[in-house]
Design goal:
The structure holds two protein chains of two kinds.
Chain A lengths: L4 H7 L2 E6 L2 E5 L2 E5 L3 H10 L10 E4 L16 H17 L2 E2 L10 H7 L8 E4 L13 E4 L2 H10 L1 E5 L2 E8 L8 H12 L7 E6 L1 H4 L3 H9 L8 E4 L3 H7 L8 H12 L11 E6 L6 E3 L7 E3 L13 H14 L14 E4 L7 H11 L9 E4 L4 H9 L2 H7 L3 E2 L20 E4 L14 E4 L2 H10 L9
Parallel strand pairs in A: 3-4, 3-6, 4-5, 6-7, 9-10, 9-12, 10-11, 15-16, 15-18, 16-17, 18-19
Antiparallel strand pairs in A: 1-2, 2-8, 13-14
Chain B lengths: L5 E4 L1 E3 L7 H4 L19 H4 L22 E3 L12 H8 L4 E4 L4 H8 L4 E4 L2 H13 L6 E4 L4 E3 L5 E3 L4 H9 L3 H6 L2 H14 L2 H4 L3
Parallel strand pairs in B: 2-3, 3-4, 4-5
Antiparallel strand pairs in B: 1-6, 6-7, 7-8
The chains are: A alpha/beta, B alpha/beta.
């Protein structure tokens, strides 16, 4: 029977069938971070249990550490406590930790692929909803809560309910100005923020095949904003070339054996998906969100909806609430709206190619005077690579702040926030009420769009900038 | 995990779609504080006015809903971040059951780890419960009975709901998954031995 890639990975990790669609699944990798990692391992110890397979668990502080240039762990004291507990527990359990300021440190979903901790065909869990990012290498990676994390650490397994499968094929050639971020935002706008609930996404089609590995990570990153815990792209030569030689990639005969397994992972041509959709690349232009859910998104050339566009009273009231929060007028054009902040970073868009794309827009120009613009590289490696090619100087010359790696303004768990009422074009993944700080107004867009907004001091179409 | 058998109370008609976990508990409250005491911060940004007093435009703050144990919502409740603090905060404000047409997958799983029952009902049924409640909030009582797998509306209509048997059993008995999984120790060991032989690359590179 024809199978999907998801079926193959799921089926090959079932330890026991628990009935009603539930299986006990083996986890090849577990990632932990400062916000919940130390706490989960403390809970484990309190239960009198140990980490089952410490060599398959990897820790990195990212959420609650300052991104201020020259930061130390004490720059944000509340985060220092979390980090101390993560360190202490990792040492006690023999878990590898990529500590702040050291090689390998970075946003958990940036370092997973960067260090080849995640590989095609593996299962990976992490106490963070954007774990789906790692599916860009062809893995089944999913976010879990704290209790499930304790279970995962104690047993290297998790009971999971088998999801359905949802494939989106992006077909055709990518138009100018359209990035992986625009592709996935457009998909969320089209299918809705709950379309992937109970589903594992697979992104396919000629336009996905043509994406770089880093772009595939961006695509998979926003799967959870469509409701899906899992997002995947089939591994191919692009994937293998990316992974080869990285720290935890197999080598020698093991690499050859792995390649053999990885080449047969992709879904069969006649595999059936629970839901299957096609997006014509020719229909896409750069995207930007206008509301307080990632599905509230439009073409950058577009308008904010009018109240009478809402299909029912409840949609109308949520539309009204979103526009009130965002300080926008129903029916207004988005382009030209004044922007106060720009944030380039997060597990969505903080990799080297993202920073290059943003820097390429600058062309020696300076940001608008009233804009505060931050660039937060995704990892120590990204930072070092970017500095080696002088990207930091181009950002600094344009008036951007070049900062230290971490989640920073995406989740605002480290004391850094966008001020109340300020409007921020952000390359992150969530425009929820208060996400970037109380009263902060977030517009999600690609790194190039964000850079253009910083220059113009307003929302602009990057294609004309 | 806290046991859950049944709960009876006034249902808070929040009735909004896409209530995300950032709204349920701001991330700042999860840095440096434990799970206890989160109840006061549930829905913090909507629940309080800048001076710290209750925002009476927010339905859960209004009498007689304040302190009720059942919450009604529209589609996709608990979407977004995986933070389990959202469940702890809801339970801390006294909520034991949320009834919605759909939930964020991770939030849904987190509920069952803690004894907060998420019940999926069609939106029409939830609207009926809301309407019946709002007609006479003084004495409208909704019952959610996990043993019988039914919701009983204020006017006495009985609506069945679906729930996985193993999740229902664990919640009725207050059982955690870990001890159950550890009982499968032999199966796990056998699987690992087989996998190490057939997929050595997944083991060696992190050994």
């Amino acid at each position: 029977m024809p199978s999907t890639m998801f079926d193959r990975i799921w089926d090959s990790h079932v330890i026991a069938d628990m009935g009603e669609g539930w299986s006990l699944l083996y986890l090849d990798r577990i990632l932990v971070h400062d916000l919940s990692g130390g706490r989960a391992m403390k809970e484990l110890a309190a239960q009198g249990r140990r980490v089952a397979e410490p060599n398959k668990v990897f820790a990195t502080p990212d959420h609650a550490i300052s991104s201020e240039p020259g930061r130390t762990e004490n720059t944000y004291p509340k985060g220092a406590k979390l980090l101390a507990s993560l360190r202490e527990r990792c040492a006690a359990e023999g878990v590898r930790i990529f500590d702040i300021g050291t090689k390998g440190n970075g946003i958990v979903h940036v370092i997973g692929p960067e260090l080849a901790i995640v590989l095609p065909g593996v299962t990976l869990a992490c106490g963070d909803s954007h774990t789906c990012t790692n599916g860009g290498v062809g893995a089944m990676a999913f976010g879990i809560g704290s209790s499930e994390l304790v279970h995962a650490l104690a047993t290297q397994t998790l009971p999971q309910l088998r999801p359905g499968t949802f494939r989106i094929r992006f077909e055709g050639t990518r138009p100018a100005g359209v990035t992986a971020k625009d592709m996935i935002l457009a998909a969320i706008g089209r299918f809705g923020t709950a379309a992937g609930t109970g589903m594992a996404m697979e992104y396919a089609g000629s336009a996905v095949r043509a994406l770089s590995l880093e772009e595939r990570l961006t695509l998979c990153n926003l799967s959870i904003e469509m409701g899906a815990r899992v997002g995947m792209v089939a591994p191919d030569d692009t994937t293998f070339e990316y992974l080869a030689g990285r720290q935890f990639a197999p080598t020698g005969a093991a690499w050859d054996a792995a390649l053999k397994d990885w080449r047969v992972l992709p879904s069969d041509a006649d595999a059936r998906f629970t839901r299957d959709e096609v997006i014509d690349m020719a229909s896409l232009v750069p995207q930007i969100t206008w509301g307080t859910s990632p599905e509230m998104v439009t073409d950058v050339t577009g308008h904010v909806p009018r109240l009478e566009d809402a299909p029912d009273a409840s949609k109308r009231s949520s539309l009204e609430a979103a526009l009130r929060y965002m300080g926008l007028t129903p029916g207004q054009k988005l382009a030209g709206t004044k922007v106060d902040w720009v944030f380039i970073g997060s597990c969505t868009n903080s990799r080297l190619s993202d920073l290059r794309a943003a820097a390429d827009v600058l062309k020696g120009r300076r940001k608008a005077e009233h804009v505060t613009a931050w660039v937060v590289p995704g990892s120590e490696q990204v930072k070092a690579d970017a500095e080696a090619e002088g990207l930091h100087l181009r950002f600094e010359e344009a008036g951007f702040e070049w900062r230290e790696p971490g989640c920073a303004l995406c989740v605002a768990a480290n004391g850094e926030t966008v001020p109340d009422g300020a409007r921020c074009v952000s390359t992150s993944n969530r425009n929820f009420v208060g996400r970037q700080g109380t009263g902060a107004r977030t517009h999600l867009a690609s790194p190039a769009m964000a850079a253009a907004a910083a220059l113009a001091g307003a929302i602009v179409d990057v294609r004309s900038y | 995990m806290e046991q859950f058998r049944s709960v009876t109370g006034l249902a808070i008609p929040l009735m909004e779609a896409n209530v995300d976990t950032d709204v349920i508990i701001p991330i700042q409250r999860l840095v440096g504080s434990g799970r206890d005491g989160l109840g006061q911060y549930a829905f913090e940004r909507r629940r309080y006015l800048p001076d710290g007093s209750d925002n009476l435009d927010f339905i859960p703050n209004r009498e007689p809903y304040k302190g009720s144990s059942i919450m009604l919502a529209a589609e996709n409740f608990g979407c977004g971040s995986s933070r389990e603090g959202a469940v702890w905060a809801l339970m801390g404000m006294g909520i034991r059951c949320v009834i919605a047409p759909s939930f964020g997958d991770i939030f849904f799983a987190n509920c069952f780890q803690n004894g907060l029952l998420p019940v999926k009902l069609p939106i029409e049924a939830i609207r009926r419960i809301a309407q019946e409640t709002e007609e006479s909030p003084g004495n409208a009582r909704t019952t959610v009975d996990l043993q019988r797998k039914v919701v009983i509306t204020p006017r006495g209509e009985t609506i069945p709901f679906g729930v996985d048997d193993r999740k229902r059993h664990a919640m009725l008995e207050g059982l955690d998954d870990i001890s159950l999984t550890l009982q499968q120790g032999d199966a796990i060991a056998a699987w690992k031995e087989k996998d190490r032989a057939s997929r050595g690359w997944a083991w060696e590179s992190v050994a």
